[in-house]
Amino acid sequence: MRALGVVGSHLDFFECPWCGCHDRERHLFLYLNAAGILSHLSGKRIIHFAPEKRLSHKILEAKPDNYMKCDLFPQEADVIQIDLLNIPLEDCSFDLLIANHVLEHVEDDLRALAEIYRVLKPGGFAVLQTPYSSKLHHTWSDPGIDNNLSCLHAYGQEDHVRLFGRDIFDRFTAVGFESFIGTHDGLLPDYDAIKYGVNIQEPFFLFKRPNEI
Question: What range defines the domain where residue 115 resides?
Fold first, then answer.
């Protein structure tokens, strides 16, 4: 994965030895703060796929009007079972959708993106952190890669089903999203990546459903 320039978790600084927080959860918390999103969640409707325990506490502290936590395989009683490929909720239901390192696990990413777009209100935002290779020109997957070992070698993790290439931003905007991609240096210039144990190369994958005219 290093040879392919894959931008994802920083495996050398993955888990906090004190609280168990993963690097991608820390980075997303910092990004949400820096972008002003976390401080403007009061009264909002939020849906969070594969919700991170510590980030969930921070979101609840912001007093949203509704906060729905969901997963395909829920492990907690307050997490609802929902398939990202078929979200059983009404159109234009949420102000914010978070799916942090989820889209590399779903069988049809474009269908999932279309569902994400559908359930967001016009003007709503989606946070879609996802590992990708900055060297690959095109996202790729192959049905012959069908076991844990081959997925590990091809995609970087046993339960990943594709490796996104640098066309990832075109794929995400193809369903209609506007891109508001941020960088660590742009949003978090005063946060040393080593000190905070995050991958400085990981962008902030922020997308917006355009306002209706």
Answer: 6-208
